[in-house]
Amino acid sequence: MGNLLQPCLSHAPLHDNTLTPHGHRVGDDFRDGEDEKISLKDFSKKLQEFADAREWEKYHTPRNLLLAMVGEVGELSEIFQWKGEVENWEESEKEHLGEELSDVLLYLIRLADICGIDLTNAALNKIHKNAIKYPPPL
Ligand SMILES: [Mg+2]
């Protein structure tokens, strides 16, 4: 079977001048010092625009996105493999680590979006449930 996962999110350039079907430019509005204000919904919208601009929606099925995310978890794992605990990351390693963590995060956000999950609410609810399940010691 062909490489259905080729149109993946992990090879997206940081600045993408592709126009979305709505005439917006993909990739130009979240990297000018406003990073701390980006919500998960913003990322979802950005990823939707990215997929729309490339007509990749058809590839972004839950199964494909999950498998792509697991592949990225594998790439992330390779950074840690056979090293023992790393005390200080070299800058090049940190850049690579950031890229792979981002790949996992972006696929997770896209997967949640495609599945109709509000990841912000789901994560907040899960933290709340965990706090009840594992109360701090008195
Ligand atoms: Mg990767």
From TrEMBL:
InterPro entries: DCTPP (IPR025984). Its cofactor is Mg(2+). The lineage of its organism: Eukaryota, Viridiplantae, Streptophyta, Embryophyta, Tracheophyta. Its main location: cytoplasm. It comes from Mikania micrantha. This is dCTP pyrophosphatase 1. Homotetramer. It is found in: Cytoplasm, Cytosol. Its EC number is 3.6.1.12. One of its GO terms (cellular component) is cytosol.
